[in-house]
Amino acid sequence: MTSTALRTDRYELTMIDAALRAGTHDTPSVFELFARRLPDGRRYGVVAGTGRLLDAIAEFRFGPEELAWLRREHVVSPEALDWLEAYRFTGTIRGYREGELYFPGSPLLVVEAGFAEGVVLETLALSVLNYDSAVASAAARMVAAAVGRPLAEMGSRRTGEHSAVAAARAAYIAGFGASSNLEAGRRWGVPTMGTAAHAFTLLFDSEERAFEAQVASLGAGTTLLVDTYDIRRGVANAVRAAGTGLGAVRIDSGDLGVVVREVRAQLDELGATGTRITVTNDLDEHAIAALASAPVDSYGVGTSLVTGSGAPAAGMVYKLVARKDAATGWVSVGKSSEGKATVGGRKQPIRALRGGVAVAEDIHVEDPPVEALGPDAGRALHVPLVTAGTLDERWLGSAGVAAAREHHAAAIAELPADALRLSRGEPAIPTRYL
Amino acid sequence: MTSTALRTDRYELTMIDAALRAGTHDTPSVFELFARRLPDGRRYGVVAGTGRLLDAIAEFRFGPEELAWLRREHVVSPEALDWLEAYRFTGTIRGYREGELYFPGSPLLVVEAGFAEGVVLETLALSVLNYDSAVASAAARMVAAAVGRPLAEMGSRRTGEHSAVAAARAAYIAGFGASSNLEAGRRWGVPTMGTAAHAFTLLFDSEERAFEAQVASLGAGTTLLVDTYDIRRGVANAVRAAGTGLGAVRIDSGDLGVVVREVRAQLDELGATGTRITVTNDLDEHAIAALASAPVDSYGVGTSLVTGSGAPAAGMVYKLVARKDAATGWVSVGKSSEGKATVGGRKQPIRALRGGVAVAEDIHVEDPPVEALGPDAGRALHVPLVTAGTLDERWLGSAGVAAAREHHAAAIAELPADALRLSRGEPAIPTRYL
């Protein structure tokens, strides 16, 4: 188990140090993680990373190595080092389920703990949720654009080697069917896929020899990459090597709208009517939508997916929204900085529905109990994630990912029909503070 | 030590399986890692990640857990599992030094090994170099825009929690002076910085009380964040709390060009003439350039830096360029796919210089020895990274990062003056295949 504790901005620790000295470190506090806006004219966002964050919180410990380094670098005082050494998160976190949709202001996580205990999780929580949600939000748009055709995530090589695993996981939650990333398979139960690259074809004296070798190893049901030299000859070689029972051909270059139709006709002529066509050439949601009428059977998406398709970070922030004053009780707080003002107070979010269709994101400020809102208020969006320091097991591991994927599909089904359009627009439903 | 072996696309392993079956897995092969083009009208790119990649190669082992999962999932045959179990990279890698500049086609890594031994590193090598180089390339532009003023990397919260550490490292190599990320300090020797967030101010009954608490803990030389409520009152409170010896104020909102001048005037009026001003509000290289005439003392950059400022992946690829045929010797290979053709053959890159100024990226194909090119050909760009499986220690750890930072500064100094312009343009020097 590797400590996650130093994946943290230095100022979290210097704030703890100063709060300890001032005696304010244990002030009961409420922090909120939310996005001020959706990026780039998007109509909804998708929450992802929650299960990963819970794991990271469990491993958030300042061990001997972390403490020795902090001491040597004089990052904080000896008193603060003692406090960090004893650190365990003992507070409570509730929040949106992983896979849930979100809108501007949605209180995605509400962290209740002493000030120091809560503030120190800021960097880690944002790193995980900002990246994973950026990928999931892009993935959901690609799934919508593919209108039922399967999608595979193939972007590991276009993002950091750890982010690659997170991206595969986030895309799967948002409806992708598989990933090329083996670690995502092992760690999170994401189905993995992939057969061969151009290098394999180039390793042999001829394309046909390479295809024969691949079929000998992976069977005729494999996918052959047919564009190393000339696509028409490649398709002919593929059917010659595998027979008409060939599983699929993959095309990774050229003008796909044109090429795919030619390849389909050629496969059919050759009798390979059941052979599928998968395409993988620099796709994003718009390129996928443009192929809707082409005889494509599945898509593989790389760069644009793992970089959030134009919005590589979700823009979420983590803010103190309330603290308990010894004299006067709970006080809502929020900065008033220009263009970055924060709505203070503990919040209870509800997705208002009419006839099963989402109509608003209702954010009840000052946190009334859900029961007080009555059964018609809508679907309560918060679930317990951590209760008095104990993680909720439902959201962890492969089971958590499977649950998130299922929940995402249900949440998407509640959206009004035009929410799935790819064009730039307003959020699909308004956020109302109540 | 965590194995990095499954941070790999499935198809790398299925290719190995098929090559083993065909008896071609040990074919002596040359793979090349390069970028076909620079993103987005950029004039140069910056190589980063090399030292991290070498570490990851050292940890690239299929241990019992990895093998058990591959077996259970039937990813490859039992013969391939045996081969993977014995895997150690025993080949040779030479390449561009970390921190070096690159241009379209620059052969950044040349990997010589048996086919299977070399192909299996593809995903990992690309993940590391594509992300780290994207950040370093953006960082270098910001450094140019800041014309000597110091820059700090503060984007940990806007990228995956592991990528955050890599980003801090890459930015430092490209000339940033510090990072907020503690793990980057511990792991790579990057200087760390940071004092307090808005939450700290909101924790107290008044801004002045918060500033007093921060100064009590961090000293008057600290940086106070003055825009939680009203900047003018914030500056007054800051100087009241810390005295005229206050180290710096930080401004994180508003129209910085205007605000910074007002704050400078106010600080000077109050006698805090030595107090510096640091700004951190959604900066990128263009915003930094726009502040050139404003009295800013330093910049903190987050989102745009860690997401590559519009180019979040460097677009590098990893291709088989030569293989040894038992009968005919070395054969150059390359796919001819539309728009993605590859120049085959082992390559020797030289930066041609005239009077110390770079004039071309000369790529000698078929790899003549450097000596044969004569002393006037320019600066040879390849250094040994791995020799017969042994890592070159010079590029590892904090010492490797420091060397890369130094080398980067020297390489930038060779560029023609207009190469540092931020506007979209052609590569600063042409790539010539010789």
How would you sum up this structure, described in words?
The structure is a homodimer of 434-residue chains. Chain A folds into two domains: 10-135 and 311-433, nicotinate phosphoribosyltransferase (Alpha-Beta Barrel), CATH 3.20.140; 151-307, TIM Barrel. The first copy, chain A, contains 15 helices and 19 strands. In chain A, the strands form four sheets. Chain A has a seven-stranded antiparallel β-sheet. Chain A has a six-stranded parallel β-sheet with strand order 7-6-11-10-9-8. In chain A, α6 packs across α7 (163-173), α10 (207-218) packs across α11 (231-242) and α11 runs parallel beside α12. Chain A has helices at 10-22, 50-58, 64-72, 78-85, 115-119, 122-145, 163-173, 182-188, 198-202, 207-218, 231-242, 256-269, 285-290, 303-306, 397-413, and strands spanning 28-35, 45-46, 92-96, 101-102, 109-114, 151-153, 178-179, 223-225, 248-251, 276-279, 298-301, 316-325, 329-332, 347-354, 357-365, 379-380, 382-387, 390-391, 431-433. Chain A is an alpha/beta fold and 434 residues long. Helices cover 36% and strands 20% of the residues of chain A. At the A-B interface, α1, α3, α6, α7 and α8 of A face α1, α3, α6, α7 and α8 of B.
